[in-house]
Amino acid sequence: MELLFEAVIFGILLGCFYAAVSIGLSVSFGLLDVPHVAHPAFLVLASYGVYVLNDRLGIDPLVAGLIITPLFFVLGLVMYRLYHEMFEKRGSDAGVRGIAFFFGIAFIIEVLIIMQWGVDQRSVTAPYVGKSLRILDMRIPYRQIVAFVVALLLTILLTLYLSRTFTGRAIRAVAQDQDALRLMGADPIRIKQWAFGIATGVLGIAGALLIIIAPVEPTLDRAYIGRTFCVVVMAGLGSMSGTLLAAIILGVSETLVLTLFGASWAPAISFTLLLVILAVRPQGLFGR
Amino acid sequence: MKRMKVDRRTVLGGATAAATLAVSGSSVRAQSAPIKLGFSMAQTGGLAGGGKASLLGTQIWADDVNAKGGLLGRKVELVVYDDKSSAAETPAIYAKLLDVDKVDLLLAPYATVPTAPLMPMVKQRGLLLIGNFSFQVNAKVGHDMWFNIAPWGPADSWASSFIDLGQKAGGKNIAILASDQEFAQNVAAAAKGVATKRNLPIVFEQNYPPTTVEFASIVRSLKAAKADIVYVASYPPDSAGILRAINEIGIGDNVKVFGGGMVGLQFTAVMENMGSLLNGVVNYNTWLPEKPMYFDGTKEFFDKYQKRAVEAKVDPLGYYLAPYGYASGQMLELAINATKSLDHKALAKWIRESEVKTIVGNIVYGPDGEWKETATLMAQFRGVTDKNVEQFRTSGKQIILSPEKLKSGEIVVPFEKARS
Hints:
The complex is a heterodimer of chains A (288) and B (420).
Chain A: H1 2-31, H2 39-57, H3 61-86, H4 94-117, E1 132-135, E2 138-141, H5 142-164, H6 166-176, H7 178-183, H8 188-213, H9 221-235, H10 240-261, H11 266-280
Antiparallel strand pairs in A: 1-2
Chain B: H1 2-32, E1 35-41, H2 48-67, E2 76-82, H3 90-99, E3 105-110, H4 112-115, H5 119-125, E4 129-132, E5 146-148, H6 157-168, E6 174-179, H7 182-197, E7 202-208, H8 216-224, E8 229-234, H9 236-249, E9 257-262, H10 268-274, E10 282-285, H11 298-312, H12 322-339, H13 344-353, E11 356-358, E12 361-363, E13 377-381, E14 398-402, H14 415-419
C-alpha cells in the first residue's frame, strides 16, 4: 500500500515533467496544426545549450534555460517562416511534406550536436541535482520537485497568456478560423509565427528540465517523440491545462504499471492510453 | 580449310595471350591493392561513446601496420560504416561490405545487439569474424570461426565472480535488474543461472525497457525487495540514471555489493559526470591503470591513443575498449603473417590453435570462440571525487577485486559504507 501511494506521488511528479516537455508541442501541433516532429530534437538542443552555460560559466540550469529562451523564440520564428514559405503556402499536402521537413530538421540537429559535443552523455550540476527531500520514510528527488513546480508555472503562464492577452486570444482564434481573424484585422501568418516562436521558446526551460532530470545524449529525442505526441493528443489539441492533466495521467499510469506489473510494460502505457482515448473520445480528454 | 585453321589458331592464341596478360595484369593489381578490413561501428546512438573509442584503437593499429609496410606487402585499408548502435542496420551494412565493397576480412561491430543478427550470415558463408565485446552471441549459433576479443571467458565467469564477492560479504539473496535488450538479458541470464545453481534466492527480478528515462520508481521497488546482492545489467544511458536515483532514493543498509554488469561506468565522460556517485559500486571492467595490466606495447598504445582522442573528441582515457580495438587488428596481423594468407579458414585455424600475444595480454581461445580463461575485472570505485578526469589516470580509484591474479585490494562492504 505504501509502495502504491509512493507510486502515485512519483507518477504525478513524472507527469509534470512530461507536461513541461510537451507543452510547446501543445501550441505548435495542438493549436497551429504544424506536424512538429522535430519538437523533441529542439528540446535536446536546448538541453545542450543549458549544459554549455552550466559547464563553462557555472550558471544554474534553470537560469541558463531562461537565458536561452529568447534565442529559441527567434529560432522558432525563423523555423515557422521557413515551413510556411516552403510548405504551408503551397497547398493542401503541407502536413505530409511538413512531417518530412521536420524529420529532416531533427536529423540535422542530431548530427550538429554530435559534431559539436560528441556522442557522450552530458549532465549539469546544481544544488538540487542528486539530493532528495525526506518525508518520513519517503525520499523525493529535488530535481523532480523542480520539474513539478516549473511545469505548473509554465502551464499557468501559458493558460493566462492565451486567455487574457489579445495576441493569446488571436493564437487560439487562428487555430479555429483564420479568415475570421483576418477580418478582425490581424495577420494569421504573423500570429502563427509568433505562436510557433513561443512554442519553441518554451523549450529553453523544458530543455533545462530535461538535463536536470537525467543526463542527455544526442539521440535522446527519439525517446520523447511518442510520449510528447501522446500527451498532446490525449489532452485534446491545444488545451494547456489538459496537457498538464494528460501528462499526469500518463505519469501515474506508468509508475503504477511499473510497480504492479514490472517496468517492461511501462512503454506500452502511452500508446494504449492513446488508442483508448482516440476510440472513446477522439477530440481528446479536454478538447471541444 | 587450312587457312581457316591457321586463322582460328591465331585467334585462339591471341585470345589466350590477351587473357594471360589480363589475368597477370589483374594479379599485379590485386597484389598492390590494399587489404580491405570491413566493419560497422556505433558512431551515433547509445553505444557511440564506446564505439568511437574502439574505432580509434583499430585505426591506430592500421596506421602502425601501414607504417611498417602493411601485411603481405599490401597496405591495410579500413572500410567502416556507422551502424547507429542499431541491430536493424548491421545485416545490410555487412552484406554491402562483402558483396559491394568486397572486403577481405571482417571485424564485428561493437556490442552484442548490433552483432547478434550477423551470426547466422557469417556462419552460412563460412567467414572469420573477430567479435568486439558482444556477450554470448555465438552460444546458440556455434560458429567455429568466431573469436571474441573481449576477455569475458566462460559464460558464467562474469556473474560468478560478482556473486562470489557478494556471498563472501555475507549475502544470502540476490536482486537482478536488467535492461530489456540482448546484451543485458544475456548477462542477467548468466547471473540467474549462477544464483539458481547456488540456491541463492532471487528476491527481485525486473527488466526495464531501453527507453526508460526516469529510474526513481524502479529503484523504490528494488529498495523494497531488501536484497543483499544487487546485480545490475544496464546500458550506458541507463547506468547513470540508476546510480543517480540510488543516490537520491537510497538502496537500504542490507545491500552488501551493488553493480556487476553496468555498461557505461567504464567511459570517461560518464565517470566524470557521475563523480562521487560511483563510490562503492563493484562493476566489471576490462582494463585499468594497474601494474599487472601492462603488456608489450600497452603503454605505447595509450600514449598514441590519448593524443589522438582529444582531436577525435572521443573518450580521453579509452581504457575499456580502445586497446581491444587495437588487439583485434593485432590478432589478424599475427595470423596473416603466420599463415601468409587471407584465407578465412586458415586464419581461423591459426587463431584457434595459438596463444595470441597482444597489448591486452596473451589470448587462448576455447572451443566457443571466447577466451579460455576470463580476464574480466571486478573492481570497486573508491575515493572518487566530482568533476575530475585526471584522478582516473592513477591507480587506486578502481580497486581490482578479481580475478585473483590481478587483485589490487580488498572489497569494502556494505555498499552504503563503501559509498561514504
